[in-house]
Amino acid sequence: MSLNGMPSPEADAATMAAAVLHGRHDLRFERVPVPRASRGELLVEVTTVGVCGTDAAEWEHGPKLMPLESRHPVTGHLGPLVMGHEFAGRVVAVGEGVDETILGTLVASCGAAPCGDCAECAGGRSNVCRRYAAVGLHRDGALARYVTVPAASCVDVGALGIDDVDAALVQPMSIAVHAARRSGVAAGDIAIVQGVGGVGAFLIHVLASQGVRVVAVDLAADRLRVARELGAATTVVGGTDDTAAVLAATWADRIPVFFEVTGTPRGVALALDVVPMGTTIVQVGIAKAPFPLDLARVTVRELSLIGTNAMVRETDLSDAARLVAARAGRWGLVAPAPIAAERIVDDALRPMAEGRPPAIKTLVLPPSG
User: Fold this and answer.
1) Which of 176, 244, 305, 345 gets the highest tally of CB atoms within 10 A of its CB?
2) pLDDT tens column, 117-138
3) What is the CATH architecture of 173-307?
4) What DSSP letter does each residue of 77-126 carry, written as one string?
5) Which fold has domain 9-165+335-364?
6) What element of type H or E holds 206?
7) Pairing of strands 213-218, 190-194
8) What is the average pLDDT score of the chain?
9) Does the pTM exceed 0.90?
């Protein structure tokens, strides 16, 4: 192991294997240079990588976020990019200004790379930094043997009893932690979570841990079983003629928060249809395309419609790590054993893009070599 961004003996090869996105449906396994940690960064030997809807969307429809065709204004990246923004690994080298005692530590990363200096960052809203960038989206990511990442965007998880695999769940858990914070929900409240997917499942765990009575809604019976395992007090089958009436029967005359996680027009319409006056609707799911929204109902019923974006690494990441640790070794119902990197297209990206995800959260091993 070494300091100042120089590769350790374990990382002394000039190149490494990586999964590089060149364009729509064009993911290639190539040899790329081993990166070096810049000031304030870690060089991490990757253990596990999570695949999310954003990855699938970039592969299926991109480039949308990734700077494959035009230079990113913050990172300067232009061209093919190593994917992977949800990841964990062991620190093998550090850049200038980073305490070397972190060497050898198992860390989970949120992949965020805000500037740290603007008013938003100073005000505790680094997720809306005007110069925000993310590892694996705007600069090379973790679907490789090694990745560099800001030290401030990593948390030591080994000390919490989290293993190499569960550690990759900290990033999606931090998204759920942030959504819960945005809502203002409190212990004893009732909250609807519509969509028990890659964020919704973690959101149920977050809310239940806070003493919130969670009502989970999903089309699939197996997802509802997972919701109950994660702490949902009540589950409701979505997409039926009775869904709205059953949901309305789960509260008296007030429901503080409705988390809409599907991002679908039908899901948003249901939220607006069933919530009582004064409810906060937190729009967690990202719509794949614009659709009409009846804002008159938001106005006359004094609803609050809140967006939630990524996470605040300074607060959400450490809380997320503790929540993952609370179920250490018991996340298999959400995230089965990681697949080989070479299977990522057939066993993750393509089925996710087609709306048939193989698991709530798919994990991938880094490419070998």
Assistant:
1) 176
2) 999 999 999 999 999 999 999 9
3) 3-Layer(aba) Sandwich (3.40)
4) --S-EE---EEEEEEEEE-TTS-GGGTT-EEEE--B---S-SHHHHTT-G
5) Quinone Oxidoreductase; Chain A, domain 1 (3.90.180)
6) helix 200-209
7) parallel
8) 93
9) yes
